[in-house]
Amino acid sequence: MVRRTRIAAVVTLAMINVFTLAAGVAVARMLPPRLAALRVASVSPGPVTGAGTVLQAGPRTGPVPTAGGLRKALARPLSAAVLGSQVSVLVADAVTGRVLLSVHGTRLSTPASTTKLATAEAALAVLGGGARFATRVVKGSAPGSIILVGGGDPTLAVMPFPAQDYPRPATLASLAAATAGALKKAGRKTVALGFDTSLYTGPLLAPGWSQSYVSGGDVTPIVSLEVDQGRLTAAGQPEDRDDPYNLGPRATHPAEMAAASFAALLAADGITVTGAPVAAQAAAHAAVLASVSSPPLSAIVEQMLQESNNVIAENLARQVAVATGEPGSFGGGAAAVIAELRRLGVTTGVHLVDGSGLSPDDGIAPATLVKVLELAEAEPRLRAILAGLPVAGFSGTLSASQSVFGGIGGGARGVVRAKTGNLGTVAALAGLVTDKAGRVLVFAIMADQIPDAGLLQAAASDIDAASAALAGCGCRLQLPVALGAPAASGPAAVTGAGRSTYGWTVSSTQMIDWDIAISTGTRWARPGPQVSLAEARRTVSELRDLAGAVQQPVYEVTGLSANGNGNGSIGRVAVVDRPGWIRANVDGFRVVLEPLVEQLRARAPGAGSGKATGPSAMLGAVGSRVTGIQAGLILAYLSGRVLGQYELFLPPETSPQDGEQPGRLTLVAPNIVMVERELEVDTHDFRRWVCLHEETHRLQFTAVPWLRDYVQEQMTEFLLASELDPAAMLQRLRAAADAMAGAVRGGDGGSLIEAVATPAQIEIMDRLTAVMTLVEGHGDYVMDAVGPQVVPSVAQIRERFNARRGSTGRIEQTLRRMLGIDLKMKQYAEGSRFVRAIVDEVGMATFNKVWTSPETLPTKAEFAHPQEWLDRVAPSN
C-alpha cells in the first residue's frame, strides 16, 4: 500500500550512509597532520619478529556479479536449440553462498556423472579421507581351505600398474606372495580356494542400466571383489593399468576373474590350488593369513572425479551404505548418500538409484550440486572433491579430446574446474570458476532434454561456452567510468584514476551497524492498537486467507498470467507486527546496499589483498553506529505507516522458489487494524482492499519477467553513481541542509534525495520514478476496479482513505517533505490517472503492452499525456 514510502527511504538511507562516510573521511584526512603538529612524544616499541608468509593467498573476492549481468552473459550459449527445452542453471557466490542467478535451479534434472559429486561428498564425510579398503585372505572352515574376501576396493589390480599411474593400487600379486609365505610357514603347499563377495547384496546392475553399459566399457557388474574395474585386454585378460579410455567390453563375472587370477598367482608362488575357485562366505572371525589395502579414500575420490570412474563411484556409495547400517546394494547406497547429504545440510532436491549417475532414473537439482561444492570448499575434510575436479584444458574429462566437454579454451582454460556429466541426451557441468573480476563462482548447468543423441557434442560445447562466459564476464552492470565504476579489475583498477579517496576497505557492517538499526527501530516504534490475543490471531489468519483469495479477482481485472511454481501459488505471505517489519526491511537494505559496498571494496587500496588500510577502526566504531541509529529511526517512523508491501529485495536464504527471489507479500497487521478503526470502515472489506493492492504488485513482478531485474538494476546503478569524493559530498551536504530548512519552514525546499543526488543519479531516479509510478498507479486502479462484488464498500474506503492521506500534522508533513514522499504521492496519483485513461480508451489488453519491455514504459511526459504513449506504443489503437 505505502511501500512507495519505503522506496524513498531506501534511497535516503543509502545517501545518509554515504554522507556519514564523507564526514569520517574529512576527519580522517584532517586529524593526522593536526596531531603531528602537537609533536606529542611517543615511545617506539621494538619490532616483533615473526615468520614471514611463504606464499601469499590469492584474492578470494572481487565485485559480485548481478543477476542481470549473468543472464546477459549466459543468454547466447544457453539459448541454443541443441540444448533442448529444459535447461536448468544456478550460479552462486562461493564466498557468501548467495544465489546470484537461478533458472529452474531447484528442479530435478537427470544429472549423469555429476552425481559423483554427491557420492564423493557422502563418502568423505562418513568414512574420512584416510579410509582404506582391505582385501583379505582368511582360513576357511574346511581343513586346507582359504577364502579370498572382497572388501570393496575399487582400485584393486592383479599386477603392479605402470610407474606413471597414480594412485598406486593394492595388487593380488602382493597379496598372493604374502599368503604363500604364511601357508609355507604353516607347512601347507596345497589349498582349496573360495572367494567371498557377501559385503554387497542385491542386483549386479542398477535400475535403468542397460547391458550395453558393460559391453560398451562404461562399467562392470558391481561386486565387492574385482580387479582393474573389470577392464580387459584384447585377449580378455585383466588390463593391469589405469586406462579410463578403454571402451572395450568389461568382465561380466568380475569376482570369478579375480579369484582365478589369484589362484594363478598362488601357483606361481609355489602353492597348488585344487579345483576351480568357488563362491564361499568366510566366518566372521576367521583367522587372517594376509591382507592388502587400497590407497586412501581422498586419492580414490580424486581419481574417480578426474576419470568419471563409474565402478569407483558405485563402490563408494555401497561403502557409505555399509558404514551407516544400510544394505550394501544399489538401493542402500543411494539411500545412504542422500541421508548423509541431508545430515550435511543439503536440503534441496535429489533422487538417486545408483552412485555414478549412469541411470536415467537419477534426479538432482542444480541447487543441490552447488551446495555440495560449497560444502567441499568450506570443509577441509571434503577438499579432495575440489582437488579431483577436472581443470579446463589441462586434466581429466575437461582436457582436450577426453570427453564431449574438452573444448573449453581461451581465457577460461585453467580457471574452470568442474565435474562433467553426459548420458545419451543429457549434458551437465557443475564446478567452480573465477571470473575476470576475481570472484569465485559456483555453478551448475544441466540440460536433460537434448533433442537427439547425435547433438550431444554440440550441446556440451554450448555448456562449455557458458562456463567460459562466466569466466570472462565479471557480469556486473556495465556502467560508464564517469559513474565511479573501476575501468578494469585487478591492481590497475585499484591504483589508477578510479582510486577511492577513502583509502580503506568498507564492508556492509562497517557502513551500518544492523543490530543497532534493529534495536533502535524496535525501541522507537510506536506500539500498535490494543487487541486481545484471540483477535490478533483471527486477524493474522484472515489476512493470510485473503492474500490467496484475492488472486483470482486480480487475474481477471489485470489480464496478467502469474509465472507460478506449478501448484497454484506464486509466492509467500508474511503477516508481521511492527518489529517484524523492521527486521524484514533490514534484510532488504543489506541486499540493496551491497553494490555500493562492493564498489568501495573494489576501489580501495589493497583491494583483493585482504588488507584494509587507513582509519577503518574509526569508521567501524563511530560511523556504522551513527548510520545504524539513523536507519533505525527511519524504520521506526515507517513501521507505523506501512500497511503492506511486496518485498523485492530478499536475502538469498529466504528465497522460496529456485533461489530466484520472486519476493514476498508482507502485511503489517497492527497498522491495518489501526487504520480500519480510524476510518470506521468494514474491517473485512478494508483488509481485502489492502490485499488486492499488494497482490497486484506480486502479480506484476511475477508475471512480467524483466521487471524485478530492471528495478534492481536501476537501484544498483543509483548506488554506484554515488559521488565518493569528500569535497563534492560536503558540497551536497550544504544542499541537503537547505532542503531540510525548506521542509521545516513548510515551503518546497525539495527532498533530501534530490538535494544530495548527483546528476547521474537524478537521471536514474527519473527512470525509477517512472516504473514505480506505473506499478503503484496500476495497483491503485486494480484495488478500485474489482468493484463492489469483491469489496462492497470500496467507494467509501477510497474516499475516507484519501481524506486520511491529506490530514497529517506539521511534523508529519515536514518528514514527508524531507523524504520526498509528498512529491511521490502526487506522481503515484498521476500513475493511477494514466492507467485509468488508457484502460478507458483502449481496454486492459492494449494497456498491458506497457509490460513488454523497459522501452514500453511511459515517460514523464507521457504520464501527463497518455495519448502520446498510445501513439508511440500502440499506434494501431
Note down, in words, how this protein is organized.
With 877 residues, the chain is an alpha/beta fold. The model is unreliable at 25-32, 34-58, 477-507, 564-570, 605-621, 653-661 and 725-749 (pLDDT under 50). Strand 4 (145-149), helix 4 (172-185) and strand 5 form a beta-alpha-beta unit. Helix 20 crosses helix 21. The longest helix is centred in the first third of the chain and has 35 residues, at 3-37. The strands form four sheets. Strands 3, 4, 5, 6, 7 and 8 form a six-stranded mixed β-sheet that branches. A five-stranded antiparallel β-sheet has the order 2-1-13-12-11, sandwiched between helices. A three-stranded mixed β-sheet has the order 14-16-15, with helices on both faces.
Oligomeric grouping of the chains = single chain
Q: How many individual β-strands?
A: 16
Q: Count of DSSP helices?
A: 31
Rg computed from alpha carbons, rounded to a whole number of angstroms: 34 Å
Average pLDDT confidence is 80
User: Percent helix among the residues?
Assistant: 40-55%
The proportion of strand residues reads 5-15%
Overall SS class: alpha/beta
Biggest β-sheet, characterized?
6 strands, mixed
Low-confidence stretches: 25-32, 34-58, 477-507, 564-570, 605-621, 653-661, 725-749
Spatial shape: elongated
State the separation between the terminal residues, measured CA to CA.
32 Å
Quick summary of this structure?
The chain is an alpha/beta fold and about 900 residues long. The chain is built from 31 helices and 16 strands.
